[in-house]
Amino acid sequence: MKLTEVQPTAEKPAVILVRPQLAENVGTTTRAMLNCGLTELRLVAPRENWLDERAIAASSGADALLRAARRFDTTAEAIADLHRVYATTGRNRFMVKPVVTPRQAAQELRGHIAEGLRCGVLFGPERTGLENDDVALADTVITVPLNPDYCSLNLAQSVLVIAYEWFQAGSPAEPKGMTKGATPVALKEDLVGVFEHLERELDDCGFFRVAEKRPVMVRNIRNMLGRADLTQQEVRTLHGIIHELVTWRGKKGEEQSS
Amino acid sequence: MKLTEVQPTAEKPAVILVRPQLAENVGTTTRAMLNCGLTELRLVAPRENWLDERAIAASSGADALLRAARRFDTTAEAIADLHRVYATTGRNRFMVKPVVTPRQAAQELRGHIAEGLRCGVLFGPERTGLENDDVALADTVITVPLNPDYCSLNLAQSVLVIAYEWFQAGSPAEPKGMTKGATPVALKEDLVGVFEHLERELDDCGFFRVAEKRPVMVRNIRNMLGRADLTQQEVRTLHGIIHELVTWRGKKGEEQSS
């Protein structure tokens, strides 16, 4: 990727890892970031060297972000040049501060940046998360709605969720309409059953003349019939059609041999 | 967690890993699933034992899903009892099949399940992704919109994105309105500057009598002022106010000493 793409830019929020413990997690974080087009990484007092081989390996090709990362001693220094800062927290800190979801945060970040405001998102250490003093420096808290019985995202997964929502907020997509069958929808085993019935008969009658073409021909047939969104009744009908064709072929054979 | 929570249920889509290579990735997949309330895991011809110690460790407490996972020899068998199957692919397979985003898929899955249809999502092996024959068995393809210059989600990250969207689709949240400042918004360094100015003076005048209470009092003050969404002009005004109060205190001291 071009080096220009990893230079600090006011067009995207900065990802700020506060006191990350493991270099490997800094590497996987850059992988999550770059998948979603985020390129600016800031590190507050990282415990390990974010350019060591474990981090580079974990970045899986996104190491340009590691090399461009900037280190700061304190969270206050890391956010000094920003206008809007979000803090990600797993649990409620009981501070009087707005709390939003990642999706809402992504909308707000797009809005702030459209207004020319520079933004960043804080992520805490692996074990403990952000300290309250870090959260107090932020404008808004981001909490990811998760299974209340089991919330256990690792650092890179938390960054991925925020970065993913940021990227999606920039590419709104029209929801696709849902198809509905009037009669009961066929189970997959019914569908595979009629596929195999047809392919068996096509083998017998020598339809697949060129052996190496058989796999792609089978796939095309399955895709074609699969798109039909068959009902259970339609599957039965198909079995009948195949059976009739074969029987007719059998009769035809008799006629020819007679 | 209760064992009942990890029993197969028609209320949630099943996650189907096709020929996963590493047991550790199966473990991290269950961690991603449970964070988003998904509990049914199906495995098609996994290369390694999904109950070995690496998988259990990687599941990070979600191992109940590993123990409840079911193994199948083929993809067709793994989806036999489902009505609607989605296939996740990184690249375009050029099959004539509907392609949706994870968000659209989540909406459709909620819709299908509301209609009483059983659903599942296919994920391919780490290196190669799903084979075209697997994709051909699915009704719809899911492709995650990502940075076109760098698409490199690992298996558990791909599952997390789909599971995350599934969970979010069940808990719609009202977008929070965006605040806008008429005058230029203060930079964080301006804000921290006035915080420190105030706290310095409060230390001098003995406002923080109980030392152990100082940190929380400082946080509360910072949160209070931080919520004010100060402009640069307001920050200058605050500095002036603090300065005036201190000068007055100094004068007062002189009067007392005189």
TrEMBL record, chains A, B:
Pfam families: SpoU_methylase. Transmembrane segments: none annotated. It is found in: Cytoplasm. Its main location: cytoplasm. Its EC number is 2.1.1.200. It catalyses: uridine(32) in tRNA + S-adenosyl-L-methionine = 2'-O-methyluridine(32) in tRNA + S-adenosyl-L-homocysteine + H(+); cytidine(32) in tRNA + S-adenosyl-L-methionine = 2'-O-methylcytidine(32) in tRNA + S-adenosyl-L-homocysteine + H(+). GO terms for cellular component: cytosol. Gene3D superfamilies: 1.10.8.590, 3.40.1280.10. Keywords: Cytoplasm, Methyltransferase, S-adenosyl-L-methionine, Transferase, tRNA processing. GO terms for biological process: tRNA nucleoside ribose methylation. Residues 14-164 form the tRNA/rRNA methyltransferase SpoU type domain. InterPro entries: Alpha/beta_knot_MTases (IPR029028), RNA_MeTrfase_TrmJ/LasT (IPR004384), SpoU_MeTrfase (IPR001537), tRNA_m1G_MTases_N (IPR029026). Signal peptide: none annotated. It is an enzyme of class 2 (transferase). One of its GO terms (molecular function) is tRNA (cytidine(32)/uridine(32)-2'-O)-methyltransferase activity. Belongs to the class IV-like SAM-binding methyltransferase superfamily. RNA methyltransferase TrmH family. Catalyzes the formation of 2'O-methylated cytidine (Cm32) or 2'O-methylated uridine (Um32) at position 32 in tRNA. Homodimer. PANTHER family: TRNA/RRNA METHYLTRANSFERASE (PTHR42786), TRNA_RRNA METHYLTRANSFERASE SPOU TYPE DOMAIN-CONTAINING PROTEIN (PTHR42786:SF7). NCBIfam families: rRNA_methyl_1. This is tRNA (cytidine/uridine-2'-O-)-methyltransferase TrmJ. The gene is trmJ.
